[in-house]
Records
---
Amino acid sequence: MVTKYLGTEFDIHGGGLDLRFPHHENEMAQSQAAGHGFANFWMHNGMVTYAGEKMSKSIGNTVSPAEMLELAPPRVVRYYLGQAQYRSVLDYQPRRCRRRPPRW
């Protein structure tokens, strides 16, 4: 599907850390077997958890940005979500998101 829109090789392909193996490694192997290089760079982001569990629609523990904004102003939500390094797990805790960010 991706080659239809991006061609046989493109710069960046990404997804969650949970897709790194075996999903993305299989994509690489299949592309190489077909004689193509696929993506030049792979980026994998950390997961957002809720109360220590992976946030998932199937579990029913997702929190939308709109729900976060009901608890705190946009700058607080932005600061809270930006605290985690992109490959790290961020455990969403509503009470922590309500706090004010530190003053600079």
---
Amino acid sequence: MSSDERRIEQTGDGRVLLRARNGDVIRYDDTGLILKLSDRVVADLRQRLVVPIDAEVLGDVDAWNLRALGDWLFFDANLPGMPGPRGYRRAIEGGAILAETPGPVLGVLSLGGARRTRAIPGAGAYPYHIVVPEDDIGAVGMAGIEDAPETHRAEGLREQTQDALLAEEMLRLRQVSGRGLPLILARCETDRSASLADLASGKAFDNLMRAAANLKALAETLNKPAKLAALSVDFALEDILTPEAEFAPAMRALLETLAKAFWQIDLRPVPALMVFDTTASEPGRDRRAAQWELAVYGGEMGPVFTLPSYALELDEALRPTEAAMRLRARTEAAALMEIEAGRGWHCPRVLLAEWEGKRAIRLRTDAATPLVLEADNPFGAVDGGLRIAGPEGAIAIASVTVDADEPRDVLIEMAENAPRKGLMLSYAWDGPGALRDSWTSSLAPDVKRWALPARLEVHG
């Protein structure tokens, strides 16, 4: 550089005040200073500066106060299906309208068999809060036919699966409690697996983890964390290959595999929600005893049995009706709220049957609150769902009462003498029951904690 050039640079001659190796940084003209900014700074300023935008870019909707920030259009709107105006966002390049929500993006996911895919047409009560991955499949998943695609985008529901209904009830409970309404991604994945071992290594499992990864990708685009809020497993009836004695260990192995897979993508796993399914009781693959074992000796990943199948209305194909799906969703949402509050969800478990005098049996449970023998018998249970059988057949029951002194115990008076050896007592094993605890919730008044089925030998 010549001495003249150096003098010009130092004194500002040539209209350059500051120059770097890659060019002029500050220049000036007759109107003032001219700054050369990096692409990163320009992008940051673009995000910070609010430019008026015509609401017509959203189509014919009742929207106002549009702002472009980064890759998103933020706006207020009064949209169909919502109780009133609120904030929304949509990608500038187009796509689904999403509710602008507080907190993390929640995932409500499930793994199972064909029954899990049942869906009710329609978007539901929170059409902009409950979404699915944008892959044109919806909430029902790929059914094991092909690999789920990777995507960071979401779309609205066309139909409501059990997971979508659960998400809806979670939002309803939060709304009536005055809490924030988060964005929830729902997805169910199934395949043609015939055993728990196959399910743990099949395409449905891989697609479920893809849904979890898509949850994280969606949250990242929204500049939010992702959180797994609920995981359900429905596979008691569909497993036709696992031997009876191996079903409980196989289910624990599946839940452990799921937990490890979630940890690997930095999602904290949650205990799996299940229904105690007494319909899965065909000879050679009776799942009732295994489910009782899982209920009594559950692990860190559960399962948490939210209710027994006798509390649900099923059709001829043993699939839940729409009313049953909605009741299950309300029950599971209440269970999740109790778990979140640190109180846990505990359907009474029948643990011990022992002689009480000559003609009575005491049934001991681990109910968290005093037991109730439902007076209106909503499921048509005989003798409250209790049955006593000896070596020579059924023993008639004279009365069933909750012990006033030990309200977590049930006293069963027999109408006849019975042998003291080889006597078996069952609750809701081959039919409905009528026993629950006294837990209630003003937020979900029709939800009850029904006792889980059991079959025990009478001791003493």
